[in-house]
Input
Amino acid sequence: MKTLFVNIGTLAGITEPGTLRKQGREMDEVQCLENAWLLVEDGLIKSFGTGNPPRVEAVTVDAEGGMLMPAFCDSHTHIVYAGSRDGEFLDKLRGLSYEEIAKRGGGILNSADLLHRTSEDELYRQAMERVREMAAKGTGAMEIKSGYGLNPEDELKMLRVIDRIRKTYPGIVRSTFLGAHAIGRGYTHEGYVQAVCDMMEDASRYADFVDVFCDEGFFTVEDTAHILEAGARFGLRPKIHANELAVSGGVQVGVKHRALSVDHLERTGDEEIEALRGSQTMPTMLPGSSFFLGIPYGRARDFIDAGLGVALASDYNPGSSPSGDMRFVMALGCIRMRLTPQRAFNAVTLNSACAMGVSDITGSIAEGKRADLILTQPGWDIVKIPYLHHTPFIRQVFLGGEAY
Ligand code: NIG
Ligand code: FE
Output
């Protein structure tokens, strides 16, 4: 099956085959072609160019001057959750902080109680609504975490739901075991850390990665090292929550354990930038949670100026970022973190794909990659996406070459 896109105003986000991430000044570049065409064969990008399109038998899509770009990649989400936490939203408006809400038994534990009472089918149904919403907003690839189970049965229930999404959604899904999201009810701190290590073998049947909320009031650096070592025994590479609530040491322990990414990073000093230099770990910032919680934004510019790459992701979850809109993430990256639109574009496409280990197959326009694409309305460009941040811009999303 072949699809030929013609009359593309701008084909944006082209990379050389083999480019897996962008770092430092590379983040300033987004390679584009004007007046372009692109040929898809069997769901993959076969070829592209400018001028006259090739004469091939194919379904033709007339882009009518619209921009064609890689679909967004969202490397950090918690979209398998039950119900909503709007009561806590009201608490927050009354002045309680995220930590205070958590201490009163709200927060993650509240979601765990709700999830416990919700059937697997119902959880899948609710999560798929969020997946469809994200895809409609342009997200092709997404990572999804467990972490609202907090006991062996319910963590596995979440991982099975993520697996079911992976099997039914035509975009890319990667799965992360986040048993260490909070201390499960009825456990001591030490007892729960051990329980998470003991869940690892079963979790590794479904999960690609292991995550720990390494932060003040949650899990220490020592807990984190212990859990990551257990994960490594079952082939799970770390992607961890670090430095959201405090300078936690999470970045350093993540880098030491070859984490694919360290995420949040709202509170980092120069030591964290130093620790990341020369590593394979992708610093990932989640401006949606800074926005929603009213906490600092990550120092993305300093990271990039130090020669590092940065990814941006949504953190879509009911407590700190109830939105999976990657275009809004890109806008916050520009408006609040003062990234250029080009840097933000690279951060929500190729680098976010890299932060979930899929930048070899998606996240940019390159021969042989999956045709996970956003076709925009005519007249759009990279600057307008964050600038006109709530004007509808998507004409059609394609996942593996198929209109979704
Ligand atoms: O990434 N920081 C930890 N976990 C989530 C919040 C989860 C929740 O509040 O339900 C986050 O912000
Ligand atoms: Fe998170």
